[in-house]
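Forwarding the complex inputs:
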Amino acid sequence: MEQKKNKITEKKKEVISELQEFGSKIYKQLDSGVFPTINMPSRSTENINYDPELRQYILGEKSVSRSARNIRHIKPFTQLAWAAMFSNELTSQRKTSTLRDVYYSAQAYEMTFTDQQESNNIITDLETLTGYAREDFNIFPEERSAIFGDLTIGYTVPGYEGKTLNLTSHPDGVLIGPALTSSEFISTKADKVIAIEKGALFTRFIEENVHNKHNAMLISCGGQAPRQTRSFIRRLHDELDLPVYILTDGDPWGMHIAQVIISGSANAAHLRELNTPDAVWSGVWASDIVEYKLPTDPLDEVDVKRLYELQKDPRYQNDPLWQREIKLFLKIRRKAEQEAFSRYGLTYIVDKYLPTKLKEGK
Amino acid sequence: MDSGVSGKVAQATFEEISASDFFYRNRDIAGLTNPSRAIFVAIREVVENSLDAAESQKIPPDIYVRLSFESEATKETQIYKLRVQDNGSGIQPRFIPSAFGQVLYGSKYKLKQMRGTFGLGGKMAVLYGQITTHQPAFVTSSTGGAKIYSFKLMIDIQRNRPIILDRKVLINKDGWRGTIIEFTLEGDYLRAMPKILEYFKQTAMVNPYANLTFVDPKGRFYKFTRATTNMPEPPKETMPHPYGVDVELLQRLIQITQYKTMMEFLKGHFHRVGEITAQKFLEFSALSPSKNPKKLTHEEIVRLMQNLKKFKDFLPPDASCLSPLGEELLKAGIMKELKPDYLVVNQRKPSTYAGHPFIVEMAIAYGGDVPKRGNFVIYRFANKIPLLYDEASDVSYRVISAMNWRRYKVSPDMPIAIVVHICSTKVPYKTVGKEFIADRSEVRREEANALREVSRQLGHFLTRQEHVHMEKKRLGIFSKYLPKIAQFSTMLARQEKVPDIDVLLKSVQKYGAEEK
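Prediction (whole assembly, two chains):
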């Protein structure tokens, strides 16, 4: 585990040196009387390609150039320099911030952003430029998901250095926030990760002792999993070699929540290691709806439209499972929520369904 | 002149109706339609006479107008006393009674640009005053000689003759020159006030060499001070052009002519008709050059008039009989009254319609005191008279509406004033009330060309403005952000010294200068 501890600290150092490198580059250009110019990969739609090997979206060869010489570029250029400076301060001083915070902090430097979207875009630019996710710059989103299970972590945040925590300490689970994502993994007895779409089922699983029965780390995604949660799942998989199972509602939206954990999103094509290609979607499948005779609702128009979109999505091409389930959804025209298993009693999903699905997943 | 004709024709047919009587019965056509309009027209007519009297001598006019309350007349109207004093040429004593007491007195056989072309001007005002108040008018005048003459007059409407009630002669100790006229009239000043004040303002604009003072019935004092003592060249008198004559004028010329032959008659009474032209014309109309004009029958006179219009080889009239304001004076007048940020004026070359020469002067003023009304402010002038009524019927309004303003980057919500001045020996008014210019194609074409010229220059100005504005904005952006980039990169690179960006800022400025 000592090796892994270094990894987090190492990464922070790399991030800081990358930001300072960017600053030096601008500084040198200015100092030699040249308008500073930077290049970074283009994030335009035509430059986003699916890489079947990496099993995620990546940016292509096209790059864009931004010059302080250009009247249309100079404002975003300045904002980018500010964002780099701000991130550098955050990371160096080991403080955290949110996107909302970034938006307001800029005003202290008379760098007013027109709106939240503009400041979010600049942060995405910084991600693209450096190849690091904003969480690496200590900028975290507002939404939080939770984790529960037998994993002991060691904090690296100021004031908590050396302290450890076992993630079973609190029955509501532990928030996946900056302190947790920046922590080192010390030890675990778990042998798998189960990511759950909804908080209610996550709580049921804790109540039903699923973490012990199945030796699992439980994660509540809270709908579409936030980026830090996705990157945390990836760490659990990479650093602890834990297989990952995903449980969602039985509809196109749940299916896609699983897919984003597995293959990432097009919006994050400029980043790596946010996805877990080996993770498995365990259900609820359309075939589960049929097999378990679950109570259902009819698919509405939007659902059907979404299914047709997903059918063509390159991320849904690598595993025959996806195409099979999409076809079945379209055939039965029904959907079911995770809670639907309650018709067989509260513990059925844990006692019967889950073991079967985990077996299938292997 | 049209009304003169109708007056005369009426006189010829119904002997008992005099010109005064005719106008008494038809005073609407002179613009004296209602008590508020009447008071405005009366002031305007007298002031115009005064301006003409000063201008004809190239004297910068000094005109003092006082309107004072006398008594209540009806619920809506009051009796006012109007007094107008000028420093003009003055009138010789023997002409004074007729000048103010006889309608159509002094009909001209020669033409030049004057304000009061109808020969009605002050006389109609005096007539109106007499009709409504039954009070005499007082006229005092001196041509600057040893004496000042003062008359108390009334008009014998039926006979169209002045009645002299009193006559005084005073010693002119101070060498005063000018005319004072004073008479009472019924009117509604409160309703007329906005138009009257507008009239003075616009008169000041188009007569920048005049001092105008107006004291209203409430004792309020309005003063418009001259901006220059330069004055336009006074117009020269000229003969009527053959294309512009009618039967009435021909008959009158034949009555007064000294010439015994048609050849001499044509050469002597018509503008730009010489030996050769006269000869060609007489051949064209199969008239003997030696025929005595006084022997022409009525039918022959009519045919002569028709042939004068048909003959193609008359030379076009020249413009020496016109007295346009000129670009400098027009500029001075507009600057004085509107103080615009930008002003462009254009004077067209002389042109003619139906044998009458005319010149169009056009100006566009932008910004400054020009009011923003959501539409262009139009100032219309004819022979230096402001036209304040019936704007939408005027040819200039049509010309302005028909313009493709977008082409000049102009939109109606900008603070833009358009000034149109037409001067002519016969302004093509649509009515006797002298309120708007008729839509004649020659006039419309001249106005459109003039407007295009000034608009083009305004467009250049606006584009330049925009460039300057954009350039300022651009430089502002660079000087706002470059120092910040320097600051942030210095912090990021952990450097001590902020890089010097002056060179970069200067390079942007230099580039900006080239752009202009």
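The radius of gyration of chain B is 29 Å.
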